[in-house]
Amino acid sequence: MLTPILIAGVGGYFLGAIPCGYLVARAKGVDIFAVGSKSPGATNVRRVLGPGPGNLVFALDALKGAAAAGWPLAWAGFFRGEAALDPLPAMIAGLFGALLGHSFSCFTRFKGGKGVATGAGGFLVLFPSGALIAATVWAVTAALTRYVSLASMLAALALTVAAWLLHVRPILLGMCAAVMLFVAIRHRANISRLIAGTETKIGQKSAAPPKA
What is the pTM for the complete model shown? Predict the structure, then answer.
């Protein structure tokens, strides 16, 4: 069982490390690491380049998470009988690897995004009901406060609470809690700006992007 988990984790890392935000911005002649929050995540791409590129990056990043979590399930489908593999540990390893790859990409000198879109895609496969609850919390918080960072952190908290209330398997609950902590750590600068009242809201524009 250890070998599939290792393969899923390593494969997930390299899948998550594909720098979608950087590539989409580069295609527009922009170095996304030099503008706005200097993050290649969908929020910064949207703020700098507009909703079209931003939504594309969100979809691509979510697809990375869904693929990393989902392909071990397809792999396990090839096994039959009493010796069939339990796919969940490998699925979790795949998503965890994708989150690390997205946030610390070997293709961009270990810089990356905060992992929210990648996590959302992965949990749509791992824990669909929890992902929908988290998405609802995200949407309501974003609409009321216009802070993407706050919406993302509360969504991660809602995912963990949903996992606990719905009595999911302990390994999945642990993954939800780990992702909640990961998202909070990745947003530590945003937390400081929220406290100071200087966090950028939805709709605020960044300065004109320099060409790459």
Answer: 0.90
